[in-house]
TrEMBL record:
Name assigned to this protein: Orotidine-5'-phosphate decarboxylase
Cross-referenced SUPFAM superfamilies: Ribulose-phoshate binding barrel (SSF51366)
Enzyme Commission (EC) number: 4.1.1.23
Statement: the UniProt record of this protein carries the keyword Nucleotide-binding: no
EC category name: lyase
């Protein structure tokens, strides 16, 4: 295991370059840590702070140093107040010390000084335990995210912007027509501009997208396949496994952008707990199943 000082040193490189390098070592799979009530209780644990602590730290032991990235869902820690947030910081620190990138699923989105504060809380150099990247929501306008976008660039971290999600309610906003095309298309175009410097260096950008693994023909329907391919953006694709996403379906969904897709799974791996060995075996199966994406 690496020392706690080493992940901070890695931040001197751009997030996209670090992500690509880590995936070259471990493969593209990202595993979620989602300690919601039903999963915690399925492990035979009480749904309490102590039960969630045991769940989360068991996941850290099983996943750290075995996958390129892990995606903890912040809400499932926040419900336990200050202790839950402290546990999330510990999870982040231990995963990063093991050489695994942490993509913190917080979906923050606001304006002005509030967005600046969200960025500092999760990505800033003085943050208590910064993640490697966070998820953000652009639906107050893409430029409302500017404080976090620029901070991520300056600190060698990343953001994943919600662009095309697989929940049925999302299409009403994301597919909506704008003067430039569609809401999703405008987000892709804006992030492509922000990723231009990394693209010039031959690296992935620090701004990625959240696009569901089960969005079907949405990219083709909106005419975004070519724009996505040119975006130089990593694509976080939740929905692999239990939610129906497969290697074959993701090839169809993402086309020529498939090499930048990060297939994300939670339940398919987490149901193998509470045994560390069971979780490790599930991680290895997932890694093998998505190896063909590269």
């Amino acid at each position: 295991m690496t020392t706690s000082a080493e992940p901070a040193a890695r931040d001197s490189a751009g997030f996209g370059a670090r992500l690509a390098a880590t995936q070259a070592r471990f493969g593209p799979a990202c595993v979620g840590i989602d300690p919601h009530r039903s999963l915690v209780e399925s492990w035979g644990l009480d749904y309490s702070y102590s039960g969630v602590e045991r769940f989360a730290l068991t996941c850290v032991e099983a996943f750290g140093g075995r996958v390129a990235s892990v995606k903890p869902q912040s809400a499932f820690f926040e419900v336990f107040g200050a202790r839950g947030v402290a546990l999330l910081e510990r999870v982040t620190a231990e995963l990063r010390a093991a050489g695994t990138l942490v993509i913190l699923d917080v979906k923050r989105g606001d304006i002005g000084t509030t967005m600046t504060a969200y960025g500092e809380a999760f990505l800033g150099k003085d943050a208590p335990e910064p993640a490697d990247a966070i998820t953000v929501s652009p639906y107050l306008g893409y430029e409302s995210l500017r404080p976090a976008l620029d901070l991520a660039r300056d600190t060698g971290r990343g953001v994943f912007v919600l662009a095309l999600t697989s929940n049925p309610e999302g299409a009403g906003v994301q597919h909506a027509v704008t003067p430039g095309g569609t809401v999703a298309g405008d987000i892709v175009a804006a992030a492509t501009r922000d990723n231009a410097d990394a693209a010039a260096r031959g690296e992935w950008g620090h701004i990625g997208f959240v696009m569901g693994a089960t969005i079907g023909s949405a990219l083709d329907d909106l005419g975004l396949g070519g724009a996505l391919a040119a975006s130089n953006a990593p694509i976080l694709a939740p929905g692999f496994g239990a939610q129906g996403g497969t290697v074959e379906s993701m090839r169809s969904v993402f086309g020529e952008s498939i090499s930048r897709v990060i297939p994300t799974t939670s339940r398919d791996v987490l149901k193998a707990g509470p045994s560390v060995n069971g979780l490790v075996a599930a991680v290895e199966r997932t890694r093998e199943s998505v190896a063909g994406l590269r």
